[in-house]
Design goal:
By secondary structure, the protein is of the alpha/beta class. The chain has one domain: Metal-dependent hydrolases (TIM Barrel, Alpha-Beta Barrel), CATH 3.20.20.140. The chain is built from 10 helices and 8 strands. An 8-stranded parallel beta sheet has the order 1-2-3-4-5-6-7-8. Helix 1 links the parallel strand 1 and strand 2. Helix 5 packs parallel to helix 6. It starts with about 25 loop residues before the first strand and ends with a helix.
Amino acid sequence: MGDIPANTRPLTGPAPKLVAPAGATDCHMHIFAEGFDSQPGGPPIAQLATVEDYRVVQRRLGLERVIVTQPNAYQFDNGAVLAALDSFGPDTARGIIAVSPDMTADDLAPLSDRGVRGARIMNLPGGATPIAAMAPVEALAREMGWSLIVQFDGCEIEDHLAALEAIQAPYVIDHFAKFLEPVPADDARVDTVLRLLDRGNAWYKLCAPYETSRSGPPLYDDVAAIAARVIAHAPERVVWGSNWPHVSVKPDAEDYPDEAMLLDALLEWLPDDATRHRVLVDNPAELYGF
């Protein structure tokens, strides 16, 4: 195994203005653990991002629960996610893994016992399981009582609509629906997102606005305008994730995201304390079984 450098990303800083309620959940972050290398087909790992590193960030943000999400680098090697779940413990952590179409329920049952509650569908470069391979994975997830998280270029949502409408398990439209080319909030493809939420099994994740925003921090107004429509339409279907350790941004970059700022954006994006409680606590608890 190769030697992966230790983390140099900033882990500490001023506390956020938002005082997170008890049970607040980070619904999307990644672990890069010592002893686990990037797999063929996945991007390289720039630095470690360990459970111990994340706990520093977690304490700073005042969050109690976490959804450990399989990074693309590991492809179908879910060992780092499982080790992280064992470390965090079942009271505060759940996992999302990469599931291949040839896995079986017998393969997945022991992982469910360790806290796995979902499968990742990644239809962008480096993803282990694309939408084209989603149907058998969705059937497995449904059999296990799991959900999916589905990431794709929102500009292509109409191309994927039949596949998304065929999903029967709960699933999350990831990363603000990730419109790689900006669209206005009244775009017809945002209407499609709302219609999918209205079907009753889709959720929407506020996560990594910096990956697509052209207006930039602190509030990412262009992406937030799309999110505002979703939040007003279906606040009971919205969750939030930090996307730590922000692997799309170089660790020493001047624009490396500040997790406290990302959390504080909810003070502007979400209209009141009750909605923030719903998004940070109630919705994740329903989706992931806390």
